[in-house]
Write a structure and sequence with these properties.
single chain; 4 helices; 9-stranded mixed β-sheet; 16% helix; 189 residues; alpha+beta; 11 strands; elongated
């Protein structure tokens, strides 16, 4: 004898959900943090239904950087996305002072060593035009893309992450979120 039980809270049915993955187009001015008493955080942009499921940011984007930020409630999944050994490339569009050239492309490909001694994994630099480039990295150290370009004499004036692996913003408006099927991760990691 099987019985079906419907559990409700305040008259609303409770639906159990497993792991969830969402993409946020983070605008500038928001901290990538769960909570901050003095500043706006990305969690303020996440609909309540996802906050209740316990989603947290996967990695970080600094306050002034815009673009793709993944959030999940699955810690193992977050670790697999972040781990450099899985080789998930992150693509950034950068506007900067100066002009990148062949020497910069080679330096990025060899792996830069920054002034504080940080050794960066080999990265891809694609010059677009004066003051514009695409940078692809496999790791996410503190302000890494900004610091890499600055180390070559090109301070960044605007930075946006456009993609992680095969996942791109694909027209997602700033401040908006999109739930992703977990199957989309198979090609990502």
């Amino acid at each position: 004898d099987e019985r079906v039980v419907c559990v409700t809270v305040d008259g609303e049915p409770v639906r159990l959900r497993g792991p969830v993955l969402i993409m946020l187009h983070k605008p500038a001015g928001y901290l990538t943090a769960a909570d901050d008493p003095k500043a706006k955080t990305v969690m303020e942009l996440v609909p309540e239904v996802y906050r209740k499921l316990g989603v947290m940011p996967v990695g970080r984007l600094d306050k002034d950087t815009e673009g793709l930020l993944l959030l999940t409630n699955d810690g193992d999944l977050a670790h697999r996305i972040l781990s450099p050994r899985h080789g998930v490339w992150k693509r950034y569009y950068a506007e900067h002072e100066g002009r990148t050239g062949p020497e910069d492309v080679r330096a990025f490909a060899q792996g830069l060593v920054l002034a504080d001694g940080l050794h960066c994994l080999p990265a891809k630099l694609t010059p677009l035009s004066d003051g514009r480039s695409v940078v692809c990295v496999q790791e996410g150290k503190y302000h890494q893309v900004r610091r890499m370009l600055a180390s070559r004499g090109m301070p960044v004036t605007y930075l946006r992450r456009d993609a992680e692996g095969t996942l791109g913003l694909d027209g997602l408006e700033k401040g908006a979120v999109r739930e992703l099927p977990l199957s989309s991760l198979e090609s990502l990691i």
